[in-house]
Amino acid sequence: MSKKIGILTGGGDCPGLNAVIRGVVKSAIIRHGWEVIGIEDGFDGLLDLGKCRPLTLDSVRGILPRGGTILGTTNRGNPFSCPIEQDGKIVSVDLSDRVVENVRTLGLDALITVGGEGSLKIALELMKKGVPMVGVPKTIDNDLLGTDVTFGYNTALETATDALDKLHTTAESHHRVMILEVMGRYAGWIALESGIAGGADVILIPEIPFDHARICAAIKKRSDRGSRFSIIVTAEGAFPAGGDRIVARAADERNAIERLGGIGQYVAKQIELCLDMDVRVTVLGHLQRGGSPTTFDRALGSRFGTKAVAMVAAGEFGRMASLHGRNISSVTIEDAVRDLNLVDPDGEIVQAAEDLGIMLGR
Ligand code: F6P
What we know:
Elements (H helix, E strand, L loop, with lengths): L3 E6 L7 H16 L2 E5 L12 E4 L26 E5 L2 E5 L2 H11 L3 E6 L1 H12 L4 E5 L15 H22 L1 E7 L6 H9 L4 E3 L7 H13 L5 E6 L11 E3 L9 E2 L2 H12 L3 E6 L11 H19 L5 E6 L2 E6 H4 L11 H8 L7
Parallel strand pairs: 1-2, 1-6, 6-7, 7-14, 8-10, 8-13, 9-10
Antiparallel strand pairs: 2-3, 4-5, 11-12, 14-15
Helix pairs in contact: 1-8, 4-5, 6-7
The structure holds 6-O-phosphono-beta-D-fructofuranose.
């Protein structure tokens, strides 16, 4: 039976989104002969029918190697809590009924939401209001449960590792401490795995509050042994024991979550206070979210896209495509958003890092 399905990309963008969109469009059209409607700017697009357009094979031609998302996205768009101006004040209103109505007006048999924890939680709430949902796990932070890995993470890791390789040569030439601040709000996966791959000396992650005296001692020990430079990689969400995450901009009516940033500078200051060494900080920022996806993310995104369509065909709603080992399967969205996929401070990867002589701030 012919179907009409919608697809949107929500939350922060990441490399591989276009591979998912292409996978959905190609398999929906080639295998099933369905219609696909692309919704612009995440759930915001479902508040305005002018932002919903048909996607054809032509629309997805050539997008596989492209970063970003051809549909646009936003990490502010929550239809259950939309900031609007009323009497000169910003207030939040629930516009989810309009979204449900527009899904019906568009005649969508299913909606594929490509997003991280925040977008998938919204998808779940809309599912409860009658929208048949299928999820696809996206985030460079790799902090979603229910899948071995999210697409976008691998590309971000490559970018961070490449930055560490580059910082190494200049750190060594100038006998400096180089600090690389990477993304990772609650989960330190990018810092941990790029740190291992890039030969970092110190890795700081949100899951292990750090002690600056120990960081200084580790750097001093290295320099006493003749290594006059050190490389530190810190997740933006890392924080000192007994302290708090460093917030660059607080949350407000328009931004539901605070903007992190500044931990690199904070650690630099602590090192300068205890050691007579030159310290420099690089904040990698959104470079990690941009650029062409790696082979791994293109293949994974494409497989997630075709799986999402297969899930619609099988009527498997309320579920998210996922990777287990080498196989694509699915889990309930509810299980995927129950908690965050955090680094286990006593797990194998942390153990491996410590066995390599990397200092984890504790
Ligand atoms: O996608 C998650 C993330 O990469 C976090 O690590 C980071 O805090 C956030 O996005 C930054 O998002 P933006 O600056 O686009 O709001």
